[in-house]
Amino acid sequence: GMFFSAVSGSRSSKTFKPKKNIPEGSHQYELLKHAEATLGSGNLRQAVMLPEGEDLNEWIAVNTVDFFNQINMLYGTITEFCTEASCPLMSAGPRYEYHWADGTNIKKPIKCSAPKYIDYLMTWVQDQLDDETLFPSKIGVPFPKNFMSVAKTILKRLFRVYAHIYHQHFDSVMRLQEEAHLNTSFKHFIFFVQEFNLIDRRELAPLQELIEKLGSKDR
Prior knowledge:
single chain, mainly alpha, Butyryl-CoA Dehydrogenase, subunit A, domain 3, disordered N terminus
């Protein structure tokens, strides 16, 4: 989000996919501004909490869009190092390998390279975010009954992009001097999913040590 605009000038701000914009002047835009203001205070545990009187679904929706944009940008900085040759499988270290299925176009999980997997994943997320019945942008349009389960699936999948970057491309991230940006973004993401219990602990296993380290620094 714009939380990082101070540093983005120094970086190529190429994103992997088009950025998803929250309409200016909307209530969701106000929520995003609130999120950025509280992030600025540096207390991430507090920053992720549901603001008083706000709708939980809307808060999760705004933050999910923001995480999509952040991950989009982070992955965009390392796409040239994430190739069919370097990453023939979508993995997060030797013990975790992901196969792609979205339940509609691809029903049986397929093995594919990391760039292909991440392309499928980010395109799928983008389609969910653009679906007005799932992510209504208009005031007063209710969120669907299955919103929370969709949001959980999106966040679970976005986590896999962080996991792949940390396990397979951290040296490139360091060379690009992006590690502070990656760590802040990931810490924000983890505190958010922990606050609302959005991702199963088993899914977080590939980055368990890092998650524990981030958590202990903050108590």
